[in-house]
Write a structure and sequence with these properties.
The protein is α+β, with helices and mostly antiparallel strands. Helices cover about 35% and strands about 15% of the residues. The chain has a five-stranded antiparallel sheet, sandwiched between helices. Helix 2 (about 70-85) runs antiparallel to helix 9 (about 305-330) and helix 4 (about 170-180) packs across helix 5 (about 185-190).
């Protein structure tokens, strides 16, 4: 998809940098309190059911919930089998128990094309802007014919109704369309009109690599997962806007991948990304599964020949993860 490359490179760096700074700040202050175990603490709030804000360790006691036991060996074996069966050529997997923080990952430092996953930091940046100026969400943007970007619409999901050149669109509606329908025109229009001054952040870290051949934005699961965690823990946006962002992510119309591996009715706040080339396709899905009383973060990135097969790979790993979580919680 076409984007202002230097601008978006900076944008991703700013957002992830701010997230990393907060987590670093939290970790340092946690260690200074020797009487408190160094864990991430979360606080439930019925007013914001889709988020669990981080709290400082000296404010409240540790959550009383038990940790899920790691099941990396099970996922490792499944990934190895899927690759042997040529369902995918490369798979990265990340899991985190969002009640207590334990996590594990497989190939989480390997580089993949971020593709439409980049729409999440754009969402975060607009909501951060709206915290300073709520009227920005009511602003209208003019969609020019020259901005039409439909060359790379993916076959797994398509916008219900394409933007019409020559018309004005409300920013909040564009954000919703960009996330729920993964609409590239809405994405590009938002990118072209964001306030660059919003990026003035002294803690920004430019960590996203750019592939020299075609300047595709690359990233790893380790880095990308911080975006979703930052929203869920309300560490980048205020609680109202964090809740608003997570709620919007639950409305994604992509029903393959993670969602397909869960029982019907499970709420999932997620974003998927697709990258198609002549030699290799990529499909990713990353988000929070709202398992009752024990939500968890699951992110999967894949490379292979067939997008539908990659979607099934993510589905199988999502199902396996659900079974592991269900099995452990059932015994309690």
């Amino acid at each position: 998809m076409y984007i202002g490359r230097q601008w978006l490179f900076l944008l991703a760096g700013v957002v992830i940098g701010a997230c990393i700074f907060f987590l670093f700040f939290f970790f340092v202050f946690s260690k200074e309190n020797a009487n408190v175990p160094p864990k991430e603490l979360v606080q439930e709030n019925s007013k914001y059911p889709h988020i669990r804000p981080l709290i400082l360790p000296w404010d409240q006691e540790l959550n009383k919930t038990q940790e899920l036991l790691p099941f990396r060996s099970v996922i490792d074996a499944s990934i190895e089998k899927l690759i042997q069966e040529k369902k995918a050529e490369n798979i990265a997997y990340y899991f985190r128990d969002l009640n207590n923080g334990p996590y594990f990952g497989i190939n989480i430092d390997e580089s993949f094309s971020l593709a439409s996953l980049l729409k999440v930091p754009v969402l975060m940046s607009y909501y951060r802007w709206a915290e300073q100026d709520p009227s920005i969400l009511r602003k209208t943007l003019f969609f020019e014919k020259s901005k039409v970007n439909r060359v790379d619409e993916n076959p797994l999901t398509k916008p219900k109704k394409l933007l019409q050149p020559g018309k004005n669109y409300v920013v909040e509606n564009l954000i919703e369309k960009m996330i729920t329908e993964s609409d590239n025109d809405s994405f590009q229009l938002l990118v072209d009109n964001i306030d660059v001054g919003l990026l003035a952040d002294p803690y920004s870290l430019t960590e996203t690599e750019i592939e020299s051949k075609d300047q595709e934005y690359m990233g790893s699961l380790r880095r990308y997962s911080t975006f979703i965690r930052a929203i869920y823990n309300a560490s980048y946006l205020s609680r109202p806007y964090s809740e608003k962002a997570m709620l919007l992510l639950t409305k994604s119309e992509f029903e393959g991948g993670i969602v397909a591996g869960l029982p019907k009715g499970f709420e999932v706040a997620h974003k998927f990304g697709v990258r198609e080339t002549e030699d290799m396709n990529q499909l990713h899905d990353c988000g929070v599964v709202y398992y009752p009383h024990n939500p968890y973060l699951i992110c999967i990135m894949t490379k292979g020949k067939d997008l539908y097969q990659l979607s099934d790979v993510i589905k199988q790993l999502s199902l396996l993860t659900y079974k592991e979580v269900y099995g452990q919680l059932k015994k309690r």
